[in-house]
Amino acid sequence: MTSAAIYGCAGHRLTEDERAFFAEARPWGFILFRRNIDTPEQVRALTDALRASIGDPEAPILIDQEGGRVQRMGPPHWPKYPPGNAYLKATDDPLAARELARLGARLMAHDLREVGINVDLLPVLDVPVPGAHDIVGDRAYGQDPQTVSLLGRAAAEGLLAGGVLPCIKHMPGHGRAFADSHEDLPTVHADFETLDGWDFAPFKAMSDMPWAMTAHIVFTAIDRKRPATQSKKAVKMMREHLGFSGLIMTDDLSMQALSGSLGERAHLSLKAGCDVVLHCNGDMAEMQAVAEATGKLKGRAKARAEAAMARIVRVPEPLDPVAAHARFFEAMGGRLDVAKGPDVGEAQA
User: Fold this and answer.
1) How many helices (H) and strands (E) does the chain have?
2) pLDDT classification of 337: cutoffs 50, 70, 90
3) Which CATH class, in words, describes the domain spanning 3-20+30-46+56-332?
4) Distance in angstroms (rounded) separating the CA atoms of residues 58 and 52
5) CA 45, CA 164: separation in Å to the nearest integer?
6) What are the C-alpha distances in Å from 91 to residues 38, 86, 87, 101, 105?
7) Mean pLDDT lowest for which of 54-68, 101-115, 125-139, 323-337?
8) What is the DSSP string of 159-180?
9) Taking the CB of residue 91, how many other CB atoms lie within 10 A of it?
10) What percentage of residues in the chain have a pLDDT greater than 70?
11) Average pLDDT score over residue span 163-191
12) Which of 89, 183, 197, 206 has the greatest count of CB atoms below 10 A from its CB?
């Protein structure tokens, strides 16, 4: 029976130990990083092998393919894509920027689908505030909720049109964090009204999306003790106040924002109401610890998982990739190397 977990793997090919572990643990899906990427043929063979290991030819396989600092598949085999904030820099017209964001995501969906990847951890719906840590920075589509919602929806639509599921992140918002949750636990002290009008707004506007990733952040206006990922109060707020009815997945359990053993982190996240836990680094001992603490994917969580996967279109929107790439990169005016800010960890999302 399928477990409520998604795991990474160590390299370009599955080891025999990984095959045996996945066959026994039966994770719902997998996630890939740069360490797993070489050539298109190799990635396709790896995604086939991952699905074969659990006997599910349509299992979700995830990747962080945002563009800019966060692009796991890149040259020489795949194009370089711009970060989220580049679209409005390429044009003063928000509607033109929306079309560029949609086209960029549609092209990324084409790249991903060809190698067997069917979920992209995009769009980033975080809205930065002045002075916040730049772990979000240029990954954000804009500096206000309206712009982020506009371009975020365009990106999601581009992915869906290309047969790839979008995953909105980092719910309910990472833009106000003054620390990097990969390294430390951020605490946000803003009142609920402020959060609701700014940080939460894009997630409300896109509550119809099939999939969301949580933020490892304490919001004192919601729960003073636990990060959103492990807070029943926060997950309830996401469901009832933000109106999100899709699949809720944790951010990477191995990030330093969370404390306790890997098993404790998984248990607390699922107990809080997350549907699926994510473990990224491919470390076998850590994955075994998560597996021991993770139950089966069942009930409402299973229904939400199935509903999310049902959103994948079987026949993507028609696309001439050569012509579309040429049009996209000409419109972007060479704004592909403007990514600035700290690297987002190889094993983290």
Assistant:
1) 12, 13
2) low
3) alpha beta
4) 10
5) 18
6) 34, 9, 7, 11, 17
7) 323-337
8) HHHTT-EE-EEEET--TT-SS-
9) 16
10) 95
11) 90
12) 206
H or E segment at 21? helix 16-25
Nearest one of 233, 227, 223 to 185, comparing CA atoms: 227
115: which DSSP letter? T
Q: How many CB atoms neighbour CB 313 within 10 A? A: 12
> What DSSP character marks residue 283?
-
Q: Is 251 helix (H, G, I), strand (E, B) or coil?
A: strand
Positive or negative, the CA dihedral 331, 206, 79, 175 is: positive
Task: Please check whether residue 30 is in contact with residue 61, taking contact to mean a CB–CB distance below 8 angstroms.
Answer: yes
C-alpha torsion angle, residues 39, 72, 123, 343 (rounded to 10): -170
pLDDT for 342 equals 57
d(CA 101, CA 109): 12
- Strands 70-71 and 65-67, bridge-based pairing: antiparallel
Residues annotated as catalytic are 182, 251
Gap between the Cα atoms of 87 and 105, Å rounded: 12
What is the structure's pLDDT at 203?
98
Q: Following DSSP, what letter does each residue of 137-154 receive, concatenated?
A: GGGSS-SSHHHHHHHHHH
Domains of the chain by residue range: 3-20+30-46+56-332
- pLDDT, tens digit (0-9, with 9 covering 90-100), for 222-266: 999 999 999 999 999 999 999 999 999 999 999 988 999 999 999
C-alpha distances (whole Å) from 2 to each of 97, 153, 214, 277, 335 are 41, 31, 22, 13, 43
pTM equals: 0.95
The answer to whether residues 216 and 227 touch, using CB atoms and an 8 Å cutoff, is yes
341's CB contacts (< 8 A; 6+ apart) are 69, 134, 135, 137, 138, 139
Residue 31 in 3-state DSSP? strand
User: Residue 271 corresponds to which amino acid?
Assistant: K
Q: What local confidence, expressed as pLDDT, does residue 135 receive?
A: 85
Q: Residue 341 — pLDDT band, cuts 50, 70, 90?
A: low
Name the nearest CA neighbour of 247 among 280, 217, 273, 219: 273
